[in-house]
Amino acid sequence: MAQIPRTRQDCEALDRADPLGGMRARFDLPEGVIYLDGHSLGPATHGALERVGRAAGEEWRSGLIRSWNNAGWFDLPARTGAKLARLAGVAPGDVVVTDSVSVNLFKLAAAGLRLTGARTVMVQSDEFPTDQSIAAGIADAGLGELKRLPPTDALAAFGAYRGVIIRSAVNYRTGEVADIDAWERVAARAGNLVVWDLSHATGVLDLRLAERGAKLAAGCTYKFLNGGPGAPAFVYARADIAQQLHSPILGWFGQKDQFDFGAAYVAKDGAARFATGTPPVLSLSALDAALDAFDGVDLAVGAAKARSLGDLVIARTASLGLETISPGEPARRGGHVSVRHQHGYAVVQALIARGIIPDFRAPDAMRFGLAPLYVRFVDVWDAMDALGDVLGTRGWDRPEYHARAAVT
Ligand SMILES: Cc1ncc(COP(=O)(O)O)c(C=O)c1O
């Protein structure tokens, strides 16, 4: 394990030696803010801001409908998908940008069930709520039967049923990384499929999904990929499997030769068949540009840095007497660390008032996001100093910090 810095000077030295240190300049970070919430909403890159201005101010305003062809709008879902494919470690043509994660999980799990000819749609009981309700909705729609698997024994249970599981590659609450190879081995043995939810994984791990046997995945782009609020999600479907899959939502953007306006629906080849309706061009343009922040980034180096930053959070919060619910072993951890505090919500609000932005997940988890492209060791050090101060002075115990906002 890399040495955990013991002083702010150690942190400064690590930042000076950081091969990703130059990447921070690609982001337009507000002054006076330490941003530790990239696992919820990544910050804007200069490139994305410039591109949204151009997409709206030139391509839409002047180009009008011509921009579908002249500005390359029509191909954006596939071109942006190819950039995402590098980050997921899959073939460039196997990813398409479309819809939200929730909708994509539905399409992939339903299509997967139909392909396996099996009935069980599985989900762990500690999954992100949308993953659970999408699985339940598939059962409600009569497409399968729901099985909620206990997290402690999920892999064995998965191998004992026949069907499809929706499974996060990184748990939203704890940051724990799934053993993708092991799940895919069990899936192959049982004739099952895993639909990976990559929402907390892409951009912060060296995923190498193809070589690990992953076949299907959906993921969000507004977290560690910095695509912007509500940026469209993506679908990965390995070409050989994709060709046999039937999306349950046959929209015209998944249709081959859609501008022939023929009566028969012939699905596009590969992952592109999971596109549905007209893509949100302005958001997609922002995402396309934002992904360039990863140009030249060695994903393994990024993952290692995120874990070292996480080690620092764990060490410093432990010295404050706080318990982490994230794995202590760096290799089992994604890009965020969660720490428990009974008044975690109020503590997070007190930190935000000081310009330090983590987030909170009920009932008691304070999440610290450690995006390797722009978070520095000194940022984590200073944030932990502030946390110590907020706790030591009970600075969190003010009425305004207890009042829950709609979004936490
Ligand atoms: C694991 C996970 N899946 C899915 C989502 C939500 O996806 P969407 O809003 O694009 O449907 C989130 C959002 O935080 C998430 O953490």
Task: Provide an overview of this structure.
The chain is α/β, with parallel strands linked by helices. 38% of the residues lie in helices and 12% in strands. The chain contains 14 helices and 13 strands. The protein has helices at residues 8-17, 46-60, 67-70, 76-88, 101-116, 129-140, 154-160, 180-190, 239-242, 281-290, 299-319, 344-353, 377-392, 399-402, and strands at 34-35, 95-97, 120-124, 145-149, 163-168, 193-197, 216-219, 234-237, 323-324, 336-340, 356-357, 359-361, 365-369. A hairpin with a 3-residue loop joins strand 12 (359-361) and strand 13. Helix 1 (8-17) packs antiparallel against helix 13 (377-392), helix 2 (46-60) runs antiparallel to helix 10 (281-290) and helix 11 (299-319) packs parallel to helix 13 (377-392). The relative contact order is 0.17. The mean pLDDT is 97. Bound molecules: pyridoxal-5'-phosphate. Pyridoxal-5'-phosphate is lined by residues 100-102, 128, 130-131, 168, 172, 197, 199-200, 220, 233.
